[in-house]
Design brief:
five-stranded mixed β-sheet; three-stranded antiparallel β-sheet; about 170 residues; 4 helices; Trna Endonuclease, Chain: A, domain 1; alpha+beta
């Protein structure tokens, strides 16, 4: 077998542990979408159990459809209200937005120490401003930080953005 000659910044267990908050965010977010009568389907594939995983073309988690208007959503689970995401992922989401001509939202679910949902905010790629952080994360990833005043993830707010962005992007 060929030696890949690199030293990963995260162990397998650290890599998979990062998904625990993501899974909580996704569970709570899908539950809300279902309550609101918004249809969705998986879009990105879960790669956490693949033996070799290349970073690169990240995909948002879901494609949602409401009254024939679509958008993509990616879930981010956090323990504090710090609206950060991997720079690499954001660059991919910008490409998906342009490729499909539809809105892409990042939903930040914040949990307390007992993993109880405290709040959910969302950022719309191309609408909400972000800047590249000066420091990398502990896992050596470059990150971006979104503006502080993101909208709450409510049905009214989500549909307002979906309708506005779909009507103005085509």
């Amino acid at each position: 077998m060929e030696d890949l000659n690199f030293d990963p910044a995260k162990s397998t267990s650290q890599f998979r542990r990062n998904y625990k908050l993501h899974d909580l965010a996704e569970y709570n977010g899908k539950n809300l979408l279902t309550q609101w009568g918004i249809k969705f389907a998986d879009f990105g594939e879960d790669k956490r159990y693949q033996k070799v995983w290349e970073k690169g073309n990240d995909k948002p988690d879901l494609i949602i459809n409401y009254k024939e208007k679509e958008c993509l959503i990616d879930w981010k689970g956090k323990h504090k209200a710090d609206w950060i995401a991997n720079k690499r992922a954001i660059e991919s989401y910008i490409n998906w937005k342009e490729k499909f001509g539809m809105p892409v939202f990042i939903c930040f679910a914040v949990f307390d120490n007992e993993n109880i949902l405290v709040e959910i905010k969302f950022a719309s790629i191309g609408v909400h401003k972000f800047e590249e952080a000066k420091k990398r994360q502990w896992d050596k990833n470059e990150i971006v930080r979104f503006e502080k005043d993101l909208p709450d993830f409510t049905k009214v707010n989500l549909l307002k953005f979906i309708n506005f962005l779909n009507n103005n992007s085509r």
